[in-house]
Amino acid sequence: MNHDNDNPGELLIGAPAIAGALGIKTRQVYKLLYAGILPTFKLGGSVAARRSTLGAWLEEQERGARAAA
């Protein structure tokens, strides 16, 4: 099954699509998934995420980093 997602829509299906949206490597996505850090869900047998949810999560991470500095 090919999980590449070249659809610029809201839904990202597969770790490679999530990695591309975040600008990180697929391996890093899996590390964040297994640590329970990344806001994702299962869609069928694939990991999925919404761009808007990832964006909000990134903003939250950024605010936390600024507050700690």
General description of the model:
Helices cover 51% and strands 16% of the residues. It has one domain (11-68). The mean pLDDT is 89. A hairpin with a 2-residue loop joins β2 and β3. The relative contact order is 0.18. The chain is globular, with a radius of gyration of 12 Å. The protein has helices at 15-22, 26-34, 51-68; strands at 11-13, 41-43, 46-50. It is built from 3 helices and 3 strands, in the order βααββα. The chain has a 3-stranded antiparallel sheet with strand order 1-3-2. The chain is of the alpha+beta class and 69 residues long. The longest helix is centred in the last third of the chain and has 18 residues, at 51-68. The protein starts with 10 loop residues before the first strand and ends with a helix. α1 (15-22) crosses α2 (26-34).
Name the average pLDDT: 89
- Broad shape: globular
Instruction: Please tell me how large the radius of gyration is.
Output: 12 Å
In what order do the strands lie side by side in the largest sheet?
1-3-2
Number of domains: 1
Helix content: 40-55%
What string gives the helices and strands in order?
EHHEEH
Report, as a whole number of angstroms, the end-to-end distance: 43 Å
Class from helix and strand fractions: alpha+beta
